[in-house]
Every structure is written in C-alpha cells, then in structure tokens.
Amino acid sequence: MTQFDKEKFHYHGGYLMYHGTYEGQPTYEEVYGKDKIHPSRIGMPVELFIARFKYVFFQGAFKNFLVKNFTVEEFAEGYKAGKSPLDMLEAKGFMTPQAKKLCKQNGMKPTQENYKICIRAMSEKYINEAA
Question: pLDDT tens across 34-91, in order?
Fold first, then answer.
C-alpha cells in the first residue's frame, strides 16, 4: 500500500490531483485507448483525481486528513466504486473547518452527529421565524 506524498499533489483550476504512482494505477492507453492519445502519453500513468474545490476554504484540511488516514490505493478503490471524495473522508471522521466552527459556536463537541443537530436546530429556528 502506498502512502500519499504531499509533494505530489497538484491543484489547478479547482481540481486537486495526485501525480504519484501507486499499485494498480491505470495508464493513458488503458483509460482512453491507444488510438485516442498522443504518442508521448503511451505508457504514462494517469494522475488520480482527488477532489474538486469550488472554493479553497478547506482544501488544506481535506488534504492533511487524506494523507493521515488513507493509502492511495484505498482512496482510488473507493472513488472507482462511486463514492464521493468528501463522503469517503467523512466516513473516517473528517469535518470541514466550517462544520467544526458551527459545533463549537453551539457549545458542542465537533462530530458529524452534532453538526447535523446544529443544522436541524438552525433550520427549525429560521422556519419558525418565517411563520
């Protein structure tokens, strides 16, 4: 199993990609077909899509949690199975900085369950105010 190397992450245009090699990594011709790629790409491994960030608010926290809690193969297998990047991290306890902040503002320990409680309480408050 291959550990993530922080130096091999690249962020461009909202997309976080991993350019390191790992077991089972597909090549360009396996993914796109030999006739549809430039000859210079033959035999080259395809970089791994990690996540898309519309805003970069929690990219650092996301990347740090990913490096500490996943192997490259584990993440790649989950992604191939159709799981979203955020869902995979949240399943292991990741919380965005905004979610942690909301829990703390409400005097609660930062957990996914407490975050959901805070969101429900806020929703009910606004619904009751509007009525």
Answer: 999 999 999 999 999 999 998 877 889 999 999 999 999 999 999 999 999 999 999 9
- What is the span of the domain harbouring residue 124? 95-131
- Give yes or no: residues 47 and 75 share one domain: yes
Q: What is the pLDDT of residues 39-50, one digit of tens each?
A: 999 999 999 999
- Say if residues 103 and 115 touch (Cβ distance below 8 Å): yes
Q: Based on DSSP, count helices (H) and strands (E) in the chain, helices before strands.
A: 6, 3
Report residue 130 as tokens.
């509007």
Q: Kindly state whether residues 68 and 126 are assigned to the same domain.
A: no
Asked if residue 61 and residue 2 are part of one domain, the reply reads yes
Shared domain check, 100 and 53: no
| Of 79, 88, 82, 94, the residue nearest 47 (C-alpha) | 79
- Give the residue among 33, 16, 117, 31 at the shortest CA–CA distance from 67: 16
